[in-house]
Each structure stands twice: as C-alpha cells, then as structure tokens.
Amino acid sequence: MAVDQPEKTVTPSQSDTVGDPSKSKAVPANATPRNPAAKVGVLLLIFTVTLVTWYVATDRLAPYSARGAVAGYVTQLTPRVAGQVTEVFVKDGDIVELGTPLFQLDPRQFELAVQQAKASLTQTLQSTAASAASIVSSQAAVSQARANLENTRSSTNRTLALAERGLVSKSQADNTRAELRTAQAQLDRATADLESAMLALGEQGASNPEVQAARIRLEQALLDLQFSTITAPTRGAITNLQLAIGQYVSPGAPALTFFDGRGAWVTTDLRENQLGNVQPGDRAEILFDAAPGRVFSGQVQSIAWGIDPGRPTAGGLVQNSPENQWFEPARRIPVHIELDGSLDDWPKAARAGGKVGVVIYAEGTENPIAWISAGLLRLRSWLSYLY
User: Fold this and answer.
1) Distance CA 255, CA 85 (A)
2) At a CB cut-off of 8 Å and minimum separation 6, what does 214 contact?
3) How far apart are CA 263 and CA 239, in angstroms?
4) CA–CA dist 373, 340 (Å, integer)
5) How many CB atoms neighbour CB 352 within 10 A?
6) Helix extents (H) in 64-107
7) Tens-digit pLDDT profile for residues 312-369
8) 355 Cβ contact partners less than 8 Å away, ≥ 6 residues apart
9) 156 φ/ψ angles, rounded to the nearest 5 degrees
10) Residues 126, 206 within the same domain
11) Is 364 a domain residue?
C-alpha cells in the first residue's frame, strides 16, 4: 500500500543556495580577512619582549656565565743551586706530600764544599788558638818588661843619689839614665805587641769574628748540599713534567711545574652590567664540565678591582686603535668564587683551567628568577653529558 509523502515547500531563497556551497553562509560586509603573517609577527614580538625581559632580569638578579675556569696556585719550582740532574724521583701527575724529594742534583761539588768549609773552620780554630797563645806570651813579655823597668828605675835612683854626692861619675849617671829609658821603651814595645795580638785575635771563643765567618761558610755549604735535593714545598701534584736526567739547571730557571694543593677556586668573567648587584658573600652554584649532572655550591669571595684595558703605548703615549665595529665589545671582570667545603669535596676530574659555568644569586635564592635559573643550570649540567 503506497503512503503519500508530504511535499516540501522550497522558497526562492533556499532554492538559490541549493547546489551552491559558497552561498550557504552569509559573510558580513565589514569582516576583516585573516592574515597568518600578522599572527607570526605578534608571536615573535611577544617572544622577543619576553627574552629581553628575562635577559635583563637574570643579569640583575641571577647573572650567569659560562666563561668560568678552575684556578689554583701553580708554582714553577726552581732550584736554589746550580747543578746537573742525576735523578728524578717523581712522574708526571704524581700527588706528593710536603717534603717529598722531587729530583736530585749532582751532590759531589756540594760535598766537597762542605769538606773545604770544615777544614777552613778547623784551620781558623787553630789560628785563633795560636793567637791566644801569642797573647799569653805577650802578656808575659809585658810583665817581664815592667819588672825590668822597676828594677832599672830603682838602680837609677840610687846611682843618681850617689852622683849628687860626688860618689859616682857623671858618665855613670848618664849611662843609668839611658838604661832607664831603654827599659821604658822595652815596656812600651811589649805593651804594643800585646795590644796588636789582642786586636788580631778579637773576641775569644765562639764570638771570635774569624770563627763566626768560618762557621757561616760551613753552614752555607751544608745548606747548598741540602738544596741539591729539591723537595715539594707543600702537598700538591706534579704536572707537565719535562725534567730529564743529565739536564743542567740553574737558580731562577723553572725546572718543574707544581700544582699547590693548599687551595683552588673558580674564576668567572662577568660583563660589567652584570655586576650591579653582585657582592662578596653572594651564594653561587657551579657546574663543571668534568662532573656532568652535578651542581656544586659556593660563594663570591671577591671581585677584581681592574683589568688590562688593552691600550698599547708607543713612546709614552697611548695609541689610538681604529674602530670598525658598531658596538664596543663588552668588558668582562673576573669574579673569584670559593666552593663550599674542602678540596676533598671537589670533583675528582676537575683540573686547573677546566671549563666551569656559574650562576650567582645576587638577590638571594627566594625569587622566581633564581628558581628558574637554578633549574636551567641543572638542565645544563645534564646536557654537559653530550658536549
């Protein structure tokens, strides 16, 4: 049985749109067409403003530098005496303690110098002993001359008394006077000899100048012999060892590079506009390329007072360097950072000159910039596994 379907009434406006999709939706007359480039421009502007804001904020609150380096006391050890190397006791990279022998110079010349100084001291002691004996002899001569003078004076007085009475001739009286003068001259000569001997000897015993000089020469010879064995000045490490047996070394010429183990620190370079809020004592976090995935804490110890501006001089006048750049490169100031703890807390693979990244929390760690900077630093520490 057929069922009659109701007929649809189609209006003219609907019939116009049927079969024409472009007319299915009316478009307002004042509508602005979409422009994808404008959206990209707005996004780029927002990104640029955000980046600049972050850049300025971190420079003021948590400056970061990837230009840090491990620093320490590196000493060029030089011998105090000249000589030929006969033995090297250490190898490159050895860790040594205070007083550990490092290398030996030929000791024979220094041993001979010690023997010569000992012989000189013995000779000086014998000479002073002889001088002391001479003084005793001179003192005896003075005593004898004084006694002879007294006897001669008494005899002369008696003879002159007899001469006044006419009992002795005038010639005998003159001879007696001559004998008195001779006795006085002998006493004067003996006294002068005694004074000369005493001046030549000087003070007796250990205070004698010649003995002291001889002892000093012996001590210097013994010291030179001791210096022929070069020892470690403190606990540290040997690096870049190029010393060989047979090599001749002299005072003042570096013979061995020694890394002093008493201390190490981190030096990082910050632009001048990053130093506005940085002060000694500020907390810092450090990452070492030698220790990926780890972050170490420390604090700012000091900020350098100056750097070399790099302005050469000629004839006492500063030379003018021609500029071919639009912007002058930023100057960077070294900042000294000490790690918390002792050297035992340092990464074992850290070496002097090794690369270091540093964040300094100039306004403390309780602010969003510090939190984000700390997170980024840890991300960098993990990325250091890759490069």
Assistant:
1) 10
2) 117, 120, 121, 123, 124, 125
3) 16
4) 20
5) 14
6) none
7) 776 767 677 666 667 777 889 999 999 998 888 888 888 889 999 999 999 888 999 9
8) 66, 68, 69, 288, 289
9) -65, -40
10) yes
11) yes
Token readout for 340 is: 């918390």
| Token pair in block for residue 235 | 């606990």
- The residues of the chain scoring below 70 in pLDDT are 1-34, 130-134, 197, 199-207, 314, 316, 318, 321-325
How far apart, in whole angstroms, are the C-alpha atoms of residue 278 and residue 36?
Answer: 44
Count how many Cα atoms sit within 13 Å of the Cα of residue 122 in the half-sphere of its side chain. 6
Measured CA to CA, the distance from residue 335 to residue 275 in angstroms comes to 9
Domain assignment of residue 365, yes or no: yes
Q: Which ranges constitute the DSSP H helices of 100-169?
A: 108-164
What is the structure's pLDDT at 229? 96
Between the alpha carbon of residue 26 and those of residues 14, 29, 31, 156, the distances in Å are 13, 9, 11, 167
Q: Are residues 123 and 184 in the same domain?
A: yes
17-43 b/e (C-beta count within 10 Å ≥ 16 → b): eeeeeeeeeeeeeeeeeeeeeeeeeee
Give me 22's structure tokens.
């472009």
Q: Residue 181 domain-assigned?
A: yes
Residue 312, domain member (yes or no): no
CA distances from 275 to 65, 99, 298, 327, 332 (A): 12, 43, 17, 20, 10
